[in-house]
Amino acid sequence: MMRRKNDNKRYFTRMGTRKKVHAFVRVKPTDDFAHEMIKYGDDNKSIDIHIKKDLQKGFVNNKQTDWSFKLDGVLHNASQDLVYETVAKDVVAQALDGYNGTIMCYGQTGAGKTYTMTGTTENYKHRGILPRALQQVFRMIEERPTHAITVRVSYLEIYNESLFDLLSTLPCVGPSVTPMTIVENPQGVFIKGLSVHLTSQEEDAFSLLFEGETNRIIASHTMNKNSSRSHCIFTIYVEAHSRTLSDEKYITSKINLVDLAGSERLKKSGSEGRVLKEATYINKSLSFLEQAIIALGDQKRDHIPFRQCKLTHALKDSLGGNCNMVLLTNIYGEASQLEETLSSLRFASRMKLVTTEPAINEKYDAERMVKNLEKELALLKQELAIHDSLANRTLVNYDPMDEIQIAEINSQVRRYLEGTLDEIDIINLRQIQEVFNQFRVVLSQQEQEVELTLRRKYTLIDKNDFAAISAVQKAGLMDVDGHLVGEPDGQGFGLGVTPFSAKPGKKAKSKKMFKEQLSTSARKEGASSPVGGKDLDFSTSKTQLTPSSKEGDVKDMLMRDRETSSTEPLPLDSPKEELRPPRPSTPPPKPVAFEDFKNERGSEINRIFKENKSILNERRKRASETTQRINAIKREMDMTKEALNFQKSLREKQGEYENKGLMIIDEEEFLLILKLKDLKKQYRTEYQDLRDLKAEIQYCQHLVDQCRHRLLMEFDIWYNESFFIPEDIQVSLKPGSSIRPGMVPISRIVSLGEDDQDKFSQLQQTELPEGPDSISFYNAKVKTEQKHNYLKTMMGFQQAHRK
């Protein structure tokens, strides 16, 4: 096991066994397949190439004419489903177990790399490896409820040796000021400045994919009308935490789905200008990629040239790293492209020589590690408590000491030093350490107090300060032997160094001044000096005791006042309860009472009921008008379709005209097409408004029904209270009482009925030809198209406004 350490997380990688890269070949279907030159093996794992010798020039031709390539699979006339099952399914499945994976599409331009990797977004059945991988990841997440799995994605484009973020057009990202760079750290290679997006559901991931696809750079040349002019890397990051285990360990992995730009021969593609420059960069980066592959396949090579270009540097982890690597080579089956086919097959055979070492990426969450250590600490404390109870040791606390306990130990140490305490009871190791610490604190305080007292009474001279000593000797305050003047040789007492301004006649006055200075300094220093500290403690305790006794007296007085006030009768002039109107002998009819109730007690509910009902009628009127507009638009659409079909039939009778593969139509048919498009747009807008109105009508109807029910319920309660409940019970029903008959608490909220959006979603699931699995795919596609159509329209408006 190899450990890699970072700031807050620890990374562990389980070393796996080395394995070779899997290489597959997919042949592009064509009507002009070279059956005589290209042969497949019986096991569909080999491909043989044979070229006839050219004997027309009359000299000996010793060029190689036969090649045989051993691969992991040859996919000929294979569907997208079969390609994914064969190439990518196992790599994606192992990614959720912690293994990194890389799937790379390589080949000549126009050989079908982008179709294999991405597929067509218009048809769900023809989707490629990338959208199928996203679907598999989210389906496997649903099958693992015991794990909390998060998925993030990024989309990188390498165009002309520059890095671009294909998802930078999102509002949450925005354009970057600083260019992106490739950075290496102990955890691997990552792109600084590349945005990574969290996706909680399949539809969000598809939206990000389609957003990036619309930002890719494509161009047209002779070999391919929609040729990718850049290398793209779509990365899926997976992070899985266990819900059941409290282990701090979790696994991470990433899947790199690489769609390389196709290599091209300039004499065949006929590239010019910008396309020629792009082709030069593409061929150069693919050449560096092949050099890196050759170096990885050579066991004797120590240095691998990963930094020759951005492509190999960004794929350093994938090429020969700790991941499952799969190469899918796309080739032509035509005789005219046989040289490029041989070059692609040679690259695939070289890739099979590369070995990788797949390993599980395990990480340790620092926060969860702390929680687990706290749990373990609590268990150890409980075990210590059990041992203490068995050993008859009570009142043992192993927690860190608080300020009160530290102050108590300080007091014990002071009393021990003063002699009032014979010994200090030792309970645990923490107390022993704190006792020694308090000894150091007390000693330091006493040294400061002694030095402060000496500085008040004496002038202290450093023995090493010879200048000060000589000055004192000259003044006659110290003899030659170093004794102070007035210092006794034997018994008795002596005075220290007297001040220079001291005179015999001012002795009493100086004593008085000294006492005043001492008392003043004691008041200023407070607790700094021993005397001042004691006085302060004593005065503080007195001030604390005095108000406490006063507070007790005040409380007693308040209690006595309350007792006396409770026993005293109420004054005669206290406000009395309002008298109820006399109850009629027979209750009035309910319709009459209901009108009175709506004007009095139920006025607020009745007002809300009327407002909701007016809103409901207004929404119904708007829905009726919208329905009429929709029917009118539908009739106009039918008439436009009939006119358009008539124009098409007329054009077919007169003969169709084409210009460079495009159909030529007349102006009238073109205007009909534009009109039908606008009508469809109006129809969708009106239909969406109608759906929103129906949802509002349903909700308003629910509110009206709720208000009507509440109004009738309140009326029943009021009617019973006013005319049927005995008068002696009316006292308990006055305002402010907790008893209210008929008011049963609502235990649940009635949910709204199924609206049109739910019906439409169910209709999608049942009527879509590909079934419910394609809903998120089509929803993401529609949202992306709507967004870009809106942006194009707004840009057109802005340009027109500028003109």
Automatic annotation (TrEMBL):
Residues 363-390, 616-643 form a coiled coil. It comes from the Eukaryota. Residues 582-591 have a biased composition (Pro residues). Residues 496-598 are annotated as: Disordered. The keyword Cell membrane does not apply. Keywords: ATP-binding, Cell projection, Cilium, Coiled coil, Cytoplasm, Cytoskeleton, Flagellum, Microtubule, Motor protein, Nucleotide-binding, Phosphoprotein. Residues 538-549 have a biased composition (Polar residues). Residues 550-565 have a biased composition (Basic and acidic residues). One of its GO terms (biological process) is microtubule-based movement. The keyword Ribonucleoprotein does not apply. Belongs to the TRAFAC class myosin-kinesin ATPase superfamily. Kinesin family. Interacts with HYDIN. This is Kinesin-like protein.
